[in-house]
Amino acid sequence: MLDFLSEWYLWIKSLHIAAVIAWMAGMMYLPRLFVYHCDAPAGSAQSETFKTMERKLLRGIINPAMVVTFLLGGLLLVTPGVIDWSDGWIWVKLGCVLVLGAIHGIFSKWRKEFAADQNTRPAKFYRLVNEIPFVFLLVIIVMVIVRPF
Asked: In terms of CB atoms within 10 Å, which end of the chain has fewer, N or C?
C-alpha cells in the first residue's frame, strides 16, 4: 500500500488540491448566498430559490469536496517521506483544517435555519463571516508552501 502511495503521490496531491479548491469556493460562496437570502422575505419565491441554491451548493459541491479533501489529505499524510511530524507547520495546517471543518458544520446549521425560515442574523453578519474561510485557507497555504517552522 505504501509503495502505491509513493508512486501515485503527485496524482493524489493534484486531486487533493482540486478538492480543496472546490470546497473553499463553496465555503466562500455559501455565506454570500446567506447575505442575499437575508433580504428575501420569508416564503417569497426569491427566498425559496435561495433555499434551493444553498441546499444544492452544500450537498452537491461543498460536502463531497470536503470528504474528498479529507480522504486524499489523509492519504498524503501517510505517504512515506512526505511529512516530518516534528515540524510545526503541519500541526498548524491540520489545526486550520479542523477549524474549517467546524465552520463547515456551522454553515450547514445556518442553512437549515434559513430552510426553516428561522434566520435571526443580519446580512452584515454574513458579510463578515464570508471572509473567515479565506483567512484559514491563507494560513494553510503559507504553512504548506513557506513552511515557516
From this structure: N
Distance CA 57, CA 117 (A): 18
The rounded distance, in Å, linking the Cα atoms of 121 and 44 is 18
- Compute and round to an integer the Cα radius of gyration of the chain: 18
Indicate yes or no: pTM above 0.90: yes
Q: State the residue range of the domain holding 39.
A: 2-145
Pair 40, 50: CB distance under 8 Å:
yes
Cα dihedral sign for 91, 57, 29, 36? negative
Encode pLDDT of 62-114 as tens digits.
Answer: 999 999 999 999 999 999 999 999 999 999 999 999 999 999 999 999 999 99
Number of domains in the chain: 1
